[in-house]
């Protein structure tokens, strides 16, 4: 009840954790382990995938921040409305 905008906070944490943990590190490890040469066919495709997911994560984080700000404007903690 004290934090009614919990979904926006969890969305922000998810957006911040998604790209580095689920996309960037696995793609870079895959490139390093399979020794994909730069500018081969696979390398730019994997980099484009990583950048696209970064853009989506930034958009999701921005949306979550807007949600938190909107909820903070109207939220008054410890105030009841009977």
The portion of residues assigned to helices is over 70%
- Taking all Cα atoms into account, the compactness measure Rg is 19 Å
- Reading the helices and strands in chain order gives HH
N-end to C-end Cα span: 15 Å
Rounded mean pLDDT is: 88
Tally of helical runs:
2
Give the number of DSSP strands: 0
Walk me through what this model shows.
The protein is mainly α and 82 residues long. Helix content is 76%, strand content 0%. It contains 2 helices and no strands.
Any key phrases for this structure?
mainly alpha; about 75% helix; about 80 residues
Concise summary:
With 82 residues, the protein is an all-alpha fold. The chain is 76% helix and 0% strand. The protein has helices at residues 6-34, 42-74.
């Amino acid at each position: 009840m004290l934090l009614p905008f919990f979904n926006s906070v969890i969305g922000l944490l998810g957006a911040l954790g998604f790209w580095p943990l689920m996309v960037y590190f696995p793609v870079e490890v895959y490139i390093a382990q399979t020794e994909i040469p730069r500018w081969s066919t696979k390398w730019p495709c994997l980099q484009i995938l990583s950048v696209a997911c970064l853009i989506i994560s930034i958009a999701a984080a921005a949306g979550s921040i807007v949600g938190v700000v909107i909820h903070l404007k109207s939220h008054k903690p410890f105030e009841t409305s009977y």
